[in-house]
Amino acid sequence: MKGFNSKLIVHILGLLLLFNSLFMGIATLSSFFMQDGATLGLAKALLVCLVVGGIAMGLTRNHKKEIKKREGYLIVVFGWLTMVVFGMLPYLFSGSVSTVSDAFFETMSGYTATGATIINDIESLPKSIVLWRSLTHWMGGMGIIVLAIAILPLLGIGGMQLFSAEAPVIGGDKLHPRISDTAKRLWLIYVGLTAANALLLILSGMPVFDAINHGMSTMASGGFSTKNASMAYWNHIPQIQYVTVLFMFLAGSNFVLLYYAIKGKFNRVFSDTEFRWYAGFIGVFVLIVMASILRQEVFVSPQASTWSVWEQSFRHALFQVVAVISTTGLVTADFTSWSPFVTMLFFGLMFLGGSTGSTAGGVKVMRHLILIKNGFLEFKRALHPNAILMVRLNKLTIEQSIVYHVLAFFILYMILFIIGAGVFSVLGLDFTTSIGVSATSLGNIGPGLGALDPTNTFASLPILGKWWSALLMLLGRLELFTVLILLTPYYWRKH
């Protein structure tokens, strides 16, 4: 690759594989102690990761320690693909997944924190493989590359280009002038909240193994569960679901604001426009869904008291709204069975997304706010063509270039959604299923519509459909431009 620092790219990919092997080691040790039969398969995958990663780093020790923007994009995309390719080895070597297509889909769904699965009977899997599924979520949730940023300075490499490619935050509010310190703080918050989530789940009555896995899945906005019924398995223990709702909400919030909250600067949190709208959207949609559930008498039975009906309606409405908006995708019920109106509402929520700077996928609330505010300003511009009218958020003026970027992002997002649904329909899926799987893949949400509703897995997708869905997951996780820019001739010209 002329014009690229190829040695540096290979070196960092090797570093990422060593990270991958570290987490594989955790799964391998757990398998050894639990004697679940997957130890040999996991050990083989670990060895392959270690050897390839070690060789890649060893052969490229004498590299130029400089990352340009073009290299940043390339490292992020190839980094994710490399992690997915090697991350599927535990499934294949352990015999838990039989085909490469299924293993690639499951792994991509894990690293991109989508949570769609092809596994019909999760509870029959070795526990260490279930743990590996959750670990892929957890690694991908905050971004493999962001994790590496904290280590790159030790190698004498700056990480700003990687951070901007991996986590393009509008108005990039950093916690610390040094990008590596920002990454470290984000990961400390991430680890702390994951541990707190698992602990509260244990105290609420969830078994330790399940709590650890759901802690990782929830904070990553992932959606992989240890049970076939997902969180519906614990419908008889409401406090478990309320705890999960709390941490899904936090996972969908800007981690910079969570940092301020931990520091006691709550005024910074509640004065943030995006956070207020994020919480407001959830509140409004919960009330709408709850009203619809009560009207449909979904939870009404001769044995249920009025309080029980209202509590269940509120809890399930709250859980599913937060799960879809935060793109976590855990389920307590099949929301597509409540009513056509509710199904349509949740389909719309698939395009909302969480906050910028969160582990959530989707379009993001900030982008919607900019689009809405700019839309209203267009009415004023039509009446006052000579007036200088700028979009403002949090009392700050949004640069016109950012507005154009958001407009371009939204247009591309919708085009990709339409193309995605079109491809699925060509592969034989019906209309409802096609638009559902396209929206849920691109938004990294998990449950779909139609034949791929919350009660079904993605095992029925045709082989090409699984690969296409995996591509949409990657595009959504890396926010479109990071991947699509590699497809432009301009990117590959020598500058």
Task: Tell me what you see in this structure.
Helix 1 (6-34) runs parallel beside helix 3 (69-87) and helix 6 (127-142) runs parallel beside helix 10. The chain has helices at residues 6-34, 39-59, 69-87, 89-94, 100-111, 127-142, 144-149, 160-166, 179-203, 208-219, 238-251, 255-262, 266-270, 273-296, 306-325, 340-349, 365-383, 400-426, 431-442, 463-477, 481-484, 489-492; strands spanning 392-393, 396-397. It is globular. A hairpin with a 2-residue loop joins strand 1 (392-393) and strand 2 (396-397). The protein starts with 5 loop residues before the first helix and ends with a helix. With 495 residues, the protein is mostly helical. It has a domain at 401-492. Strands 1-2 form a two-stranded antiparallel sheet.
**Helical coverage, percent range:** 55-70%
Low-confidence stretches: 150-172
Q: Order of helices and strands, N to C?
A: HHHHHHHHHHHHHHHHHEEHHHHH
Overall SS class? mainly alpha
Largest sheet: 2 strands, antiparallel
Keywords:
22 helices; two-stranded antiparallel sheet
